[in-house]
Amino acid sequence: MVNLNMENPTKYPDKYLKVLFICMILAFTCFTSAFAADLKDSTVVAMVNGDAITKAELAVMTNRLLPQIFYHGHVSPEKKKKVEKKALESLINEELLFQEAQRQGLKAKKSDVRERLDRIKGKYPSEEAFNEAMKKNNITVAMLKEKIKKTLLVRSIIEKEVKVSLSDKKLSDYYSNNKEKFSVPESVRLRYIWVKFDPSVPDFREKARAKAEKAYSKIKAGEDFAKVAWSYSDDMSRVKGGDVGFIHRGRMASEVEDAAFTLKVGQVSKIIETDTGYHILKVEDRRPSRQLSFKEVKDKLRMELTGSMQKKRMNELIKRLRAGAKIEYF
Fold first, then answer.
1. Could you give the percent of the chain with pLDDT greater than 90?
2. Is pLDDT above 80 for 67?
3. Is 273 within the bounds of a domain?
4. Residues 60, 24, 49, CA angle at the centre, nearest 5°?
5. By percentage, how much of the chain surpasses pLDDT 70?
6. Sign of the CA dihedral 19, 22, 23, 27?
7. Average pLDDT value over all residues in the chain
8. What is d(CA 118, CA 25) in angstroms, rounded to the nearest whole number?
9. Do 122 and 243 belong together in one domain?
10. Where is average pLDDT lowest: 67-76, 168-177, 179-188?
């Protein structure tokens, strides 16, 4: 189902047309002494249709995946092993894509190779620093150019086999056939007070009830709801005077939502009890459900559909290539 939350739109990254495989180019710009030994290790860890994947390549890919998966904290040997397995499968997929590009006769332009090589060199403070890094890791310019060509060929086969370009007509037809997906449900803007249950406190229900009743009496006496929320609510929204913005059904406990959607604008609910505590609501505004126009959803719809279709094509391509490949693990 297409997710069109128009109140909180997000850009869909065109990640399936970016490098979905190991980018050896980037690896050459971020060598570390910790991986220097591995980067020189030519031990074969897998064969893909007779072409080798080395321990050096696996070390680079693992080094790239680790910070993406584990943002902080110690990475145990067991966790690193799991990442290595994922890294190896990515390398195998890359090799299969590269071989398919070669089979189809795709070529990398010399100008593109040169531009990528200059971009890598530009990440170093000087030509000498670049050459030193290359020498330190037993890499020649010729080897680097071959890796760049490989990267470009893999990108080319992905663009050829995976890329999706949707016309406005196709998007319009999809919208017309799935209008029920493109509606904004009825919503209400709430101010909210939550007095939570704390089972670690003796007589917690009675104490929570007393606190909620005190807050409720102040509101009924004419005190500003926002001020009372700041003083009595245990919800994070207290810092905004209890304002939780517009909500639609499915966001809060059913008892709370039932009350919220029956109140009129300006009305305050009675004290509502749920399994988590006591709640008091005030409806500030109300929006009826409405159908989103094609113009409102077109851009986001294009990103959503393109992304999902490209992901499907990519998975099908990898599945097909693997089915006809001879893959050996060592």
1. 72
2. no
3. yes
4. 90
5. 86
6. positive
7. 86
8. 11
9. no
10. 67-76
Q: Residue 154 in contact with residue 21, Cβ under 8 Å? A: yes
Range in 13-22, 110-119, 220-229 the model is least confident about: 13-22
Distance, CA of 91 to CA of 27 (rounded, Å) = 14
Residue 51, beta-bridge partner list: 48
CB contact at 8 A, 107 and 98: no
pLDDT at 14 over 60: no
Residue 329: inside a domain, yes or no? Answer: no
Regarding whether 68 and 148 lie in a shared domain, the answer is yes
Does 143 share its domain with 199?
Answer: no
Is the pLDDT score of 138 beyond 90?
Answer: no
Q: What pLDDT, in 10s, does the model give residues 259-298?
A: 999 999 999 999 999 999 999 999 999 999 999 999 999 9
Q: Is residue 318 part of a domain?
A: no
Q: Are 156 and 108 spatial neighbours (Cβ–Cβ below 8 Å)?
A: yes
53: domain range? 24-162
Mapped to the 3 state alphabet, what secondary structure does the chain carry?
A: CCCCCCCCCCCCCCCCCCCCCCCHHHHCCCCCHHHHHHHCCCCEEEEECCEEEEHHHHHHHHHHHHHHHCCCCCCCHHHHHHHHHHHHHHHHHHHHHHHHHHHCCCCCCHHHHHHHHHHHHCCCCCHHHHHHHHHHCCCCHHHHHHHHHHHHHHHHHHHHHHCCCCCHHHHHHHHHHCHHHCEECCEEEEEEEEEECCCCCCCHHHHHHHHHHHHHHHHHCCCCHHHHHHHHCCCHHHHHCCEEEEECCCCCCHHHHHHHCCCCCCCECCCEEECCEEEEEEEEEEECCEECCHHHHHHHHHHHHHHHHHHHHHHHHHHHHHHCCCEEEC
| Model confidence band, residue 73 (pLDDT cutoffs 50, 70, 90) | low
Q: Quick one: 35 and 89 in the same domain?
A: yes
Dihedral angle over CA of 273, 278, 279, 280, nearest 10: 100
Query: What total number of domains does the chain contain?
Result: 2
